[in-house]
Amino acid sequence: MMQSSLYKLAELFIAFILIPISFLLKFPLWIKMLMGTLGFVYVVFVLLRIERKKFKIASHLNWTHFMKRISIQLIGIIVLTTLYTWFVDPSNLFNVIMNKPLLWMIILFVYSLFSVYPQELIYRTFFFERYQSLFKNKHLFIFFNATLFSLAHIFFGNGLVMILTFVGGLLFAYTYKHTQSTLLVTIEHAIYGSWLFTVGMGSMLGFPS
After folding, report:
1. Which residues contact 136 (CB under 8 A, 6 or more apart)?
2. Separation of alpha carbons 183 and 199, rounded Å
């Protein structure tokens, strides 16, 4: 039953549309955290027991090509976000890394391990494994994945966050589609997100400052 198209569509709607939108409603934070935790447990269960996915580092990964591509993309991100912060919010430009370097290191570690990895496991590994077969058009599938990844950040109530996460979603979906590696897409996500926190845009993305 859990492999039927109808079940997967219902699963997709509840997990990736209904629940993210529900977080806009005002109800206790502990309930939202419980929903997120149970959702993550469900994802891991489905991947391991239903999809028979094995968590291991693939030996075929092309690290050279991966690092070259994200380095080029990161340069563009650095230039654009530095200019944006300089003009829009200059007081926060590199504020945390210059004034609270220990906090900066701790937050980046916690963020990469406990935020980025679960996000990529859910929105790339799980999403691709479960729903890619439902789409004939692969470009539409990547667009849809990026759109739902952006929707997951709607509770921030910030249009720029929605745009950034949509663009990020496109990049991450592209990486996962071509590498099938949760590790690589997690590294990419962590690098971009860490830079946004470093340059001074962390407050709008929920980073402590």
Report:
1. none
2. 24
With CA atoms as reference, report the closest residue to 194 among 96, 76, 126, 87.
96
Number of independent structural domains in the chain: 1
Query: Which domain, by its residues, includes 15?
Result: 5-205
> For residue 42, which amino acid is it?
Y
| Residue 209 pLDDT class (50, 70, 90 cuts) | low
Q: CA–CA separation, 135 vs 82, rounded Å?
A: 38
Amino acid sitting at position 48: L
pLDDT in tens, 98-135: 999 999 999 999 999 999 999 999 999 999 999 999 99
φ, ψ of residue 204 in degrees (nearest 5): -75, -15
Alpha helices in the chain (DSSP H): 5-13, 19-22, 29-45, 63-88, 95-99, 101-111, 117-120, 127-131, 138-151, 159-179, 182-199
Q: Name the token pair of 92.
A: 């926060």
CB 148 within 8 Å of CB 140 = no
Given a contact cutoff of 8 angstroms between Cβ atoms, the answer to whether 96 and 202 are in contact is yes
Q: Angle at CA 131, nearest 5°, toward 11 and 5?
A: 65
Concatenated DSSP letters for 91-114? GGTTHHHHH-HHHHHHHHHHHIII
